[in-house]
Design brief:
By secondary structure, the protein is an alpha+beta fold. The protein is built from 13 helices and 19 strands.
Length: about 575
């Protein structure tokens, strides 16, 4: 057991970003547009192409990649950070905000599965389970650990976790009136088989079922805790995870290590101290004064801190589920001609060198690391990404080829192409301005109409009222949900109007393909075909910038589906004055 360091800890603060969309300053843009609540696939049609490949039946899944602790590891200490926006309450099943499930009291709870994020991977591994098997095409059996205890707080009082607890929690989350129910909407049955085994039945084959159970929103809560107040909005917050909620208020959350956590070697720290600090200037001042250990901040703020302090390191982390998306409405002239859309793309240069803190450019480390952005589609785990196997170099930044294409279709000078850009931040405005200049270079005159984020959701994502649009991708709960909603012919958010029966066939096939390699091949081909349609793509992914003092070690903020298990492996050395 570790001593509670909060007895001697004063005001402690630190910054971490939790935003769904971002601006060039990596801050939240304000109101999130109201969107359809369902991204269900269109009704099933005839079976095409590959049929579902059953999972190989494993005997066990390791809890994590076996890695020895650092040779100079120093255990203990409190990591101090803050979030720019706090959660509305403390019930992980009644909110979608990552301020709760990823960075707040959600860390108190475990999940059936989680992600192994060592070296940037995102493979699904066991959390509360020890093994699983696919006993039939639509049936999974999951065996649970027998050494997990609820935290020793009334009314749970340290009792053992059972399969009945897991079934209760997953059934509660799947309630159709709850905001996270879409994750489990394809699951028709959760059944406890004895005390340490659960049976899961699906309505249809689902290649992402384990990922959804590993999602940060799929936290396992206890019936007794819910029954205290009818829900968990006001607590009590009692889980089986690595942290215990020591103090939960609107503006501060203090978590201490769980002495009965089933993974004996983790966490390395004694606790996490989290404050809600909306103003970036306040977080930056806290870093300078060393009352903050690490902070998410804008590019400029990180660069300024690097200029002032050699002991501040930084890291840039891509978020493939966000960024700058460009959409062209294929139902409107002249975007209804493929050659015109191809020519438009050839006038744009979506990637250019960006100066990084310390005067470096993308891909070069300077007391830090940076992950180079690339063209692609939104993704939660990086499973939808353009790769070296897709040649997009010949689709951008070639004016001579653009003019040749326009000549081939005898396009006359075009006026009044309207580019609608959402007010998500300066990065989006800059992209729209670059498009205007590119189009003008080949004789296509256009103008920009700036619209609010809420109007963008109504007019662009839902209504399809645009010629060209620039904004963030629509929010997604899974790769398959995104593909069906946005790129399938019958998708509710397919507002570019593009239709390709082969894309539809492949989308339906990958949704049923359990073999990871085969599914990867299908996703790669889907991306090739979408790019060939020249109607929708991510020009730049969002990059979140973090800065941290040199006494913070092994800070690797890779968070597939909101997984923040990496915090268990962060450790501290002595803070210098």
């Amino acid at each position: 057991m570790r001593v509670n360091s909060y007895l001697t800890t004063g005001l402690l603060i630190l910054a971490a970003l939790v935003s769904v969309q971002c601006s060039s300053g990596d801050t939240s843009p304000g109101a999130t547009p109201v969107l359809p609540t369902s991204t269900a696939a269109p009704p099933a049609t005839a079976t095409y192409g590959p049929t579902a490949t059953p999972f190989a039946t494993p005997t066990s899944i390791p809890s994590a990649t076996t890695v020895p602790p650092p040779d100079n590891l120093k255990r203990g200490g409190i990591l101090r950070f803050a979030i720019p926006e706090g959660p509305p309450h403390s019930d992980p099943h009644l909110t979608v905000t990552s301020a709760l499930v990823s960075w707040g009291v959600g860390q108190v709870y475990s999940r059936v599965f989680k992600f192994d994020t060592l070296n940037g991977k995102s493979s699904v591994i066991c959390d509360l389970c020890t093994s699983w098997e696919q006993s039939a095409p639509l049936t999974f059996k999951v065996k649970l650990r027998d050494d997990v205890k609820w935290q020793n707080i009334p009314p749970l009082n340290g009792r053992a976790l059972t399969a009945h607890d897991v079934v209760y929690s997953l059934t509660r989350q799947a309630n159709s009136s709850y905001p996270n129910s879409a994750l489990l909407s394809n699951i028709t049955e959760f059944t406890a088989v004895g005390d340490f085994e659960i049976l899961i039945r699906l309505d249809s084959p689902d290649s992402e079922v384990l990922e959804k159970l590993a999602d940060a929103h799929s936290r396992i809560v206890a019936r007794e805790a819910v029954e205290v107040n009818g829900d968990l909005r006001r607590g009590p917050t009692i889980g089986t995870g690595p942290w215990i909620a020591n103090e939960v208020q609107a503006d501060v959350i203090r978590l201490i290590v769980n002495p009965d956590y089933y993974e004996d070697d983790f966490p390395y720290l004694d606790g996490l101290d989290i404050q809600v600090m909306p103003a970036e200037s306040t977080r930056a001042a806290g870093m300078r004064a060393k009352v903050i250990d690490l902070a998410q901040a804008s590019f400029d703020t990180v660069a300024d801190a690097r200029d002032r302090f050699d002991q501040i390191y930084w890291i840039g982390v891509e978020n493939p589920a966000a960024g700058v998306e460009v959409m062209m409405n294929t139902n409107r002239s002249p975007m209804d001609k493929l050659a015109v859309r191809e020519a438009m793309m050839l006038t744009w240069n979506p990637e250019s060198n960006v100066a990084m803190p310390g005067g470096d450019t993308i891909g070069v480390s300077f007391h830090g690391r940076y992950s180079k952005s690339s063209l692609g589609l939104p993704s939660l785990n990086g499973d939808l990404r353009y790769s070296k196997f897709i040649n997009f170099d010949n689709r951008f930044n070639d004016l001579s080829k653009a003019n040749a294409l326009l000549t081939s279709v005898e396009l006359k000078p075009i006026d009044n192409v309207i580019i609608k850009v959402g007010e998500f931040g300066q990065q989006y405005i800059d992209q729209a301005n670059a498009i205007v200049l590119g189009l003008a270079s080949v004789g296509i005159r256009s103008e920009i109409e700036r619209i609010s984020t809420r109007v963008f959701g109504d007019e662009i994502w839902i209504g399809g009222d645009y010629d060209i649009a620039v904004g963030t991708p629509p929010p997604i709960s899974s790769t398959t949900a995104y593909l069906f909603a946005v790129h399938h012919t019958n998708g509710p958010w397919n507002t570019t109007g593009y239709s390709n029966p082969e894309i539809d066939r492949l989308i339906e096939a990958q949704a049923k393909e359990y073999d990871a390699i085969k599914r990867g091949d299908l996703l790669l081909e889907i991306q090739r075909l979408i790019l060939a349609g020249s109607h929708r793509f991510i020009a730049t992914t969002r990059t979140t910038h973090w800065m941290y003092w040199d006494y913070v070690h092994d800070f690797e903020p890779f968070t597939p589906r909101g997984d923040t298990d990496f915090l268990n492996k962060v450790w501290l050395t002595d803070r210098a004055n």
